[in-house]
Amino acid sequence: MRESRAVSSAALREILKDRFLVGAALNDNQIAGKDTAAVEIVRRHFNTITPENILKWEAVHPKADRFEFCVPDQFVALGAWQGLFVVGHTLVWHNQTPPWVFEGTSGAPLHPELLLWRLREHIHTVVGRYRGRVRAWDVVNEAFEDDGTWRKTPWYTTLGEEFVAKAFEFARDADPDAELYYNDYNLWKPAKRKAVVRLVTSLRKRGIRVDGIGEQGHWLLEDPSLQEIEATIVDLAKTGAKVMITELDIDPLPRPDALVGADVAKHVELTPELDPHAEGVPEDVQRRMAQRYADVFSLFVKHRAVSRVTLWGVTDADSWLNHWPVPGRTNHPLLWDRLGQPKPAFHAVVEALTRAASARA
Ligand code: G3I
């Protein structure tokens, strides 16, 4: 793919300015400003940021009586300084939540009222601190299994389905102006999507604010199909909520079927066959990645309901897919390579979006 001057100087946020927000998840080094190459990419190409880990419960509220706001404060300040739409991730999840949250006092079994009180205190403290500055929150993350049944987390087994409604109410009370989202992966699977659509529709009918639904977008080179992605956008939009692709990456490495998605509880051991591009990505794979990224971005711009697309990391070096589902692989799932250089996939996205914009004009 030849890089024209126009393409190499293009900024994603500029090309997409009339369509949707575009951004990335940031890690500690980027938030601290140490990874200057990544920060420059963010400054140039993005208008929204999400923290990859630092606002998760274990990081921001590690002990019952201790909140750690130092790094989140830096993150929020970075967003304000650069004029970015700051998304908070995530208030209620089963992962990266410390065990004490689900333990009763002095060895007593956990009482639902106590868990609810902890949830309220957590949300009010964290959301309240960043009121007006964190503009949107992933309130509930990954409440369903792929087959559409409720995930049997301590949130669900202790509080039942109502934990979701409560979390959204607490967040709305803590910052009535923040947008509030439900976020999950594999919503292209019909049973899971149906469960989320049913939940969001019923919450909205009850007057509980759910402003958006995020399909995380941890996808592979071939799966899900473009038809499945489009059906997901269309169905989610029918709830009346905004639709977002919140954690986009395209994994070009081999993946056992059972590990499609983002269930971080599962792992596979490293073998050479599972790490085929450790020395670099062959041209045909670069080409397929470019086509895949161009195809999915072309779909996103086609649908008005899509209000934001966030990549889960800035460069390939940062991606969580270097550690999951096979720890220690060299992965290449994003638009910038390990040196922070734009990849053929980046140029293909720019070309596709530029073409789509001139077709609309
Ligand atoms: O902070 C410790 C560090 O002290 C330690 O030395 C190191 C050793 O492994 O681990 C560090 O913690 C890691 C943490 O990321 C911070 O880098 C954890 O092991 C690692 O498991 C954790 O992974 C994160 C994962 O969520 C955990 O659930 C990924 O970075 C993060 O990208 C990923 O993000 C999730 C979204 O929140 C929700 N959707 C799925 C997505 C991908 O799994």
Question: What does this protein look like?
Answer:
The protein is α/β, with parallel strands linked by helices and 361 residues long. It has one domain (5-360): TIM Barrel, CATH 3.20.20.80. Helices cover 39% and strands 15% of the residues. Strands 1-2-3-4-5-6-8-9 form an eight-stranded parallel β-barrel, surrounded by five helices. Helix 7 (112-129) links the parallel strand 3 (85-92) and strand 4 (136-141). Helix 11 (226-237) packs parallel to helix 12 (283-302). Residues 1-7 have low confidence and may be disordered. The protein binds ligand G3I. Ligand G3I is lined by residues 52-53, 95-96, 141, 216, 247, 262, 264, 320.
Q: Any idea what the CATH superfamily is called?
A: Glycosidases
**CATH structural class:** Alpha Beta
Evaluate the radius of gyration.
20 Å
Helix/strand order, N-terminal first: HHEHHEHHEHEHHEHEEHEHEH
The helicity comes to: 25-40%
How big a fraction of the residues is strand? 5-15%
CATH topology: TIM Barrel
Oligomer description: single chain
Report, as a whole number of angstroms, the end-to-end distance.
25 Å
- Report the uncertain regions: 1-7
What structural class do helix, strand and pairing data support?
alpha/beta
* Largest sheet composition: 8 strands, parallel, barrel
Number of domains: 1
- In DSSP terms, counting alpha (H) and pi (I) runs of 4 or more, how many helices? 13
Q: Give the number of DSSP strands.
A: 9
* CATH architecture title: Alpha-Beta Barrel
Ligand inventory: ligand G3I
* Strand line-up in the sheet with most strands: 1-2-3-4-5-6-8-9
